[in-house]
Amino acid sequence: MKKRISLILSAILILALGGGLYYIHLFTPVITGYAAKNLASDVFVGNRTQESVESTDLNFSFIKFAKNTVDYNKKEVTSRFLWAKSKAIYIDGFGCVLVRGNEAEIRNRPYTIVPLPDINPDTVAWPAGDKLADTISVDIDQIKLNKAIMNAFKDSVGTKGTFAIAIAYKNQLIAEKYREGFSDKNRFLSWSMAKSFTHALVGIMVKKGLMDIKQPADIPVWKNDKRAAITIENLMHMNAGLEWNENYGNLSDVTLMLHKAVDMAEFTYNKSPVARPDSVWLYNSGATNIVSYLIRKKIGNDAEYYAFPRRELFNPIGMRSAIFETDASGTLAGSSYIYASMRDYVRFGLLYLNKGNWLGQQILPEGWTDYAMQPANGSDGQYGSSFWLNQSGDYPDVPKDLFMCRGHDGQYIYIIPSLELVVVRTGFSKKEDFNYQQFLLSIVESLTSKDDKIFDKNKELYLDIGKMESR
User: Fold this and answer.
1) Is 193 strand, coil or helix?
2) Is the pLDDT assigned to residue 12 strictly greater than 80?
3) Which of 73, 191, 210, 286 has the fewest CB atoms within 10 Å of its CB?
4) What is the topology classification, in CATH, of domain 188-444?
């Protein structure tokens, strides 16, 4: 009897070990893919060091055990873990791509470099350029604002925490602060803030008469089943009714899509229907990549498609630093992969704060930003069209008209129209590691009802300051 029990226990142990090894085998492409892609982008696009990225962004779970090699001449990164290997390569003007499939094909697509406007931004007034006013008339409590900024940089645990903050009030940049090791020369990863940029690109397509978000999406494999009724609007509302697992902590749909799939849109549109479109809200990063694919399909010419974001969005609003990366199939990774400077993220916030109008030019359709703030069916007021909302009361002490771009690791563009306020925060912080509600509230509370007063921004508020102490 004891021998039989011993054999059964041994068999269970062998099966458990085998199952564990099989799971690790499935997970290794995600581990190496995550490490290679993020390290390559942060080094070659973000202007960071390998040491900085490995000690922060890659310093968790199995990812921290990947062995990474950075080739600065070829501008590529190779990451290894156990028997798995992944490589990410740099494409001039389009950031880094995780190699899945044919590398030569990835390198030889008709990437179109649209020139930046022929101006020196240091000589052009903000927000079109980077020349800031010597004095700004604002209605603000300077001491409270400085304290709010200081407190935001106290969240650091080891190498993690807040990387940078930038704030615009009444269309003026009033505060900008970087953690040691970061500066305005860095581009920062958007993560899911990219979804809101994709919303802007769809708006431009709508304004040009090239897209109708109310019509069923043009996905051939959906034509003859329950998915036939899914619209672009459903995809942007996250209520298309597709099966999806957005858990970043395991072998889920989102981790497989981002780090293993060749074509992120195809990976997603092949998911089964689980609910009637426009009925159940389920956050789905892949849905936005389907939207990116539909933009590509509608434009119908890859050279024009690759030029589209810079020509129609980035250049017109002065986002000189912005880089929109693609997946291995060549479709812009609209769910996750934009890199930009803090000031450029502020500019995007100002575009939406000002209802899609940029210094007199209407970039987005009339009413498009209001549409972004209308709650999606099933979302209980927490989500609109590719933007997070405050109508569910997640930020109970700030105005209800707050809407925001939100990234996985604590990247935020907060937009509060009633206060004419845009706040950008980036870093590497899980939800439980940083009090986002208190952070935003402390900034809102620095806005007073007193009469406007003149202050010297270089003496009173944080603006391109390296130290944290109050000035």
Assistant:
1) helix
2) no
3) 73
4) Beta-lactamase (3.40.710)
